[in-house]
Amino acid sequence: MEQIKLEVCCGDMQSVLAAKEGGADRIELCQALEMDGLTPSAEMMAEAIGLGIPVQVLIRPREGDFVYDEAEIETMLKEIRLAKRLGANGVVIGALKSDGSIDEETIRCLVSEATGMSITFHRAFDVCSQPTEALEQIVSLGCHRLLTSGQAPSAEQGIPLIKRLVEQSGGRLIIMPGAGVNQENARRILSETGAHEIHGSLRRNGSTDSELVRAVKNSL
């Protein structure tokens, strides 16, 4: 049986330490969670990576939509190079065209820059226009994992689409449910979708809480 893995989204070092203490298998590292997450600073990357837990660095240069211009794409390429140089396990990326389709050209560039790293396509997928087609594009572009709420406000509400995505992917990449994950619903989300990884921020009073992480980990 495939091992269940818990990834925890952390927006500050207090959260990273709590996630590690609680038994998280991996960190998604970002800052500015009030903006749904932006690329963390070099100092934050280095400190988190130095703790020895696998770190996936969010590559997102600004808040708002996922339609990027040339300058923003160049910024993302530089951020990927920095994360790689500092020893990050992987990066978390995403880009769309204005019609809601996957921006294949941009993703191809980002994936090429991240060669040798674990690559997750983030929840830009949840606002894309054609999820079935988008999944095939994400697979063909070389991403290893897709973080999604099933295009719903929470992963629990998105179970039907997540289940279809797991079936469609056929093991070609990992489908990782995320959004609104807690100790009460994590097991259900995994069992009903067939997914083997799950993602949550598990925050209390603004930061990730080790007891919440441990509770979810123990529920899996």
Structure report:
The chain contains eight helices and ten strands. The chain has helices at residues 13-22, 42-49, 70-86, 104-113, 131-140, 159-169, 186-193, 210-219; strands at residues 5-10, 26-29, 55-58, 90-93, 118-121, 145-148, 174-177, 197-200, 203-204, 207-208. The strands form two sheets. It has an eight-stranded parallel sheet. Strands 9-10 form a two-stranded antiparallel ribbon. The protein is globular, with a radius of gyration of 16 Å.
Strand content: 15-25%
Quantity of strands, as a count = 10
Classification by helices and strands: alpha/beta
The separation of the N and C termini measures 13 Å
As a percent range, the share of helical residues equals 25-40%
> Order of SSEs, N→C?
EHEHEHEHEHEHEHEEEH
Individual helix count: 8
Shape call: globular
Q: What is the rounded Rg?
A: 16 Å
Q: Averaging pLDDT over every residue, what do you get?
A: 97
Topology:
Elements: E1 5-10, H1 13-22, E2 26-29, H2 42-49, E3 55-58, H3 70-86, E4 90-93, H4 104-113, E5 118-121, H5 131-140, E6 145-148, H6 159-169, E7 174-177, H7 186-193, E8 197-200, E9 203-204, E10 207-208, H8 210-219
Parallel strand pairs: 1-2, 1-8, 2-3, 3-4, 4-5, 5-6, 6-7
Antiparallel strand pairs: 9-10
Helix pairs in contact: 1-8, 3-4
